[in-house]
Design goal:
Layout: H1 4-16, E1 18-24, E2 31-38, H2 39-63, H3 78-110, H4 138-150, E3 156-157, E4 163-164, E5 182-185, E6 195-199, E7 205-207, E8 212-220, E9 224-231, E10 235-245, E11 252-253, E12 258-262, E13 274-280, E14 283-285
Antiparallel strand pairs: 1-2, 3-4, 5-6, 6-13, 7-12, 8-9, 8-11, 9-10, 10-12, 10-13, 13-14
């Protein structure tokens, strides 16, 4: 059995064994390239390439703008920009103080008093803006209503070339009544009733009021089976207390297409009916203002 010392010698000898790497022409077998290598040389070359690659990556990350695309790194010029903005803010503040001092001294001159080199402390306005209450004027409300209704029936086109009648109001949409029936509970913001309750026949089909995409279709403890549809112009319609849902989340529906069946599911129901809500730009609106039930 070879000793440990002899094994090391054999291992070192194997590292220095020379090999020829020959590249030949596949058709003529003509020798093109011949390289004499040892295992030690191959190890040194591969290690050197890895070290060079690591150094190159570190350099690119540390000293070039590529670091901005790596999570955790910010813009290298961000600190400089913040410093410049802070300097400008300080300059504006100093300029405002000089102007305030100038105006203050003008008042002193008019009143026959001596001018000062600095503004007295506590010269700021003592008005408590938190106590100011704003009230709607009748004239302002009339002007707003006149402006909103001025072009209700004008034809316009959106960015996609699609036709709609009024870009600033949802009155230009042709809403489809989700169900025909009797309204038993009206829209009331004060009571946090953000929709209307409609009573109709048993197993009556509930239809989408506009084209859109289903963004919610699931069961909730309070309102039972609920389906919500996202429409254009930030309009969302919500249908609650259904007995069954016929569309899944992500489904595209057309106006008038059946999406659910009327029911009385959920803890807050008082009988078979549809609770219908209409939201515009994140605010609930009265569906009766836009839809004839």
């Amino acid at each position: 059995m070879p000793t440990e010392k002899e094994k090391k010698k054999i291992w070192k000898k194997k590292l220095r064994n020379k090999y020829n790497l020959i590249i030949r022409n596949d058709e003529t077998f003509e020798e093109k390239i011949s390289i004499r290598l040892t295992k030690l040389n191959v190890f040194i070359i591969v290690s050197s390439l890895i070290i060079i690659l690591v150094v190159l990556v570190i350099y690119l990350v540390a000293f070039t703008s590529l670091r901005e695309y790596i999570p955790g790194y910010t813009d290298v010029s961000l600190r400089k920009k913040l410093y410049e903005l802070q300097s400008r803010a300080d300059s504006l503040e100093a300029d405002f103080k000089r102007k305030d001092l100038f105006i203050h001294n003008i008042k002193k001159i008019i009143e026959g008093e001596e001018i000062v080199d600095e503004l007295p402390k506590g010269n700021e306005s003592n008005v408590d803006y938190d106590t100011i209450k704003l009230y709607k004027s009748t004239e302002d409300s009339i002007l707003r209503a006149e402006f909103e209704n001025r072009d209700v029936y004008n034809l316009r086109f959106d960015d996609n070339g699609e036709l709609y009648r009024n870009a600033s109001s949802i009155r230009g949409f042709n809403f489809f009544a989700p169900i025909k029936g009797i309204i038993t509970n009206k829209f009331n913001l004060a009571e946090k009733h953000y929709g209307i309750d409609i009573v109709a026949k048993k197993n009556e089909a509930i239809k989408a009021t506009l084209d859109g995409t289903v963004i919610f279709s699931d069961w909730t403890p309070e309102t039972g089976y609920v389906i919500g549809i996202q429409h254009k112009r930030n309009i969302i319609s919500v249908y609650k207390h259904n007995s069954a849902l016929l569309k899944e989340e992500g489904s595209f529906v057309k106006a008038g297409e059946t999406v659910a069946i009327i029911g009385e599911s959920g803890e807050l129901t008082t009988g078979p009916h549809l609770h219908f809500e209409l939201w515009y730009n994140g605010t609930p609106v009265n569906p009766e203002d836009y839809i004839s039930f």
